[in-house]
Amino acid sequence: MLGRVFEADEQAALESASVAIVEDIGLPAAVLDPGATVDDLVQRHPELAAEFDGLMTEEKAGQPGGEVRRAALVAKLMINVFSTGTGGVSATQLANWQADAGWFEKALGHDPGALRGRPGEGGMGATLGAIEGDLVNRMHLREVLANPVLAKRLTPSMSLIGQLLRDKDNLSGVALANAKALIRRFVDEVAAVLRTQVQQTSVGEIDRSVPPKRVFRNLDIERTIWKNLTNWSPEDERLYVDRLFYKQTAKRTTPARLIVVVDQSGSMVNAMVNCTILASIFAGLPKVDVHLIAYDTRALDLTPWVHDPFEVLLRTKLGGGNDGPVAMAMAQPKIADPRNTVMVWISDFYEFDRSQPLFDMIQSVHRSGVRFIPVGSVSSGGEQSVNPWFRQRFKDLGTPVLSGHVRKLVSELKSFLA
Question: Would the pTM count as exceeding 0.90?
């Protein structure tokens, strides 16, 4: 690492000294080769896998001895992850970096991809996400997608999916088919994670007008004992039960309506992906009526495809301006029962001369009884800048802008639907 800081004539001396040190501590010389991936090292020297795992955690740092060996392995990870050079990037280079980044995350005590999955929380996740995004931007993506062999080496990530969604209209044939396969794979992976977070959501209140089912699982033990206490026999020391009581479990059938409005301008790709997937999951719950609208300068009703986020994403066109009042004009007629409706609005809320008209419409919807949830970002995505003018007014309205991990939005929606 130091060798890269100094002049070329000094680098040779530092590198030769590094080789001597590495050999003295029993590590292969390939540790010093920036072109060798961690996978290459582990494949040739399987015993190193356990050393890389948790390498940078406090537990490993507290172990006596081996400080120089540990420092050499840390330096290897740092060089491979943070020294990405300049110029074009191939599919193989991107795949190698993603694999090395996975080892770096494991060294920090996380699962591979975990930190890159939450860059919106800042810190190392944001740094890794930015590096990956830069590599994707430097890659000749269309040429890679046109080659099935190279396309198979790509690992879908938020950065890559964002680039594919922006460029999909310029793709055709094999390149378009490979792009769709990558988007589908990423959607399925994210959906699997979000589905476990949503789990089973109960909808509606207990309906007292419906008699309870007289089955064992509904038996109310405490109430049965309480109501039969007069039948207690001191002589026998037994409680004789002449009547059983059951819990009521029937739910009211009024459906909750969830209206999701998504700003599809280029800066909102991360929230767009997560929220369309999340909308499809809630649409699969019983008695939840989900509507989905995407907008830029025009609004598009995507409700017919809400159960398939892959189709929704293919129908969006990222980039351009935005016109919130146009989207609200489409969303308002969908409000049938305000107090049984939640509206999730995902945007950075930069409306410029339309700011006041949009806020007036939102305020009207909120006062009608609709649960309005403004969302600035839902990661796994980048940090999102939200218009300070809107942020303050939403706070004054009692509906502060929600941003951060998608679990926050899941929690908000479940509290409304439960």
Answer: no
